[in-house]
Amino acid sequence: AVSILDLSKATYRKMLQNLGWATGYNVFAIPLAAGVLFPLGIILNPAVGAAL
């Protein structure tokens, strides 16, 4: 049987993992969708930017 403490530890680890993934994604995707590559001549389709 799984104890409540084991379940809460696993839940907390998963929460930290999800927070890490979300932070990494946002560090990459938000500047890309905002047009940070425009000065380099790379233009992102607005629909793709919205999907990011």
TrEMBL record:
GO CC terms of this entry: membrane
Keywords of the record: Membrane, Translocase, Transmembrane, Transmembrane helix
Residue intervals passing through the bilayer: 21-44
GO molecular function: copper ion binding; P-type divalent copper transporter activity
Record carries keyword Transmembrane helix: yes
Record GO biological process: copper ion homeostasis
Full protein name: Uncharacterized protein
Source lineage: unclassified sequences, metagenomes, ecological metagenomes
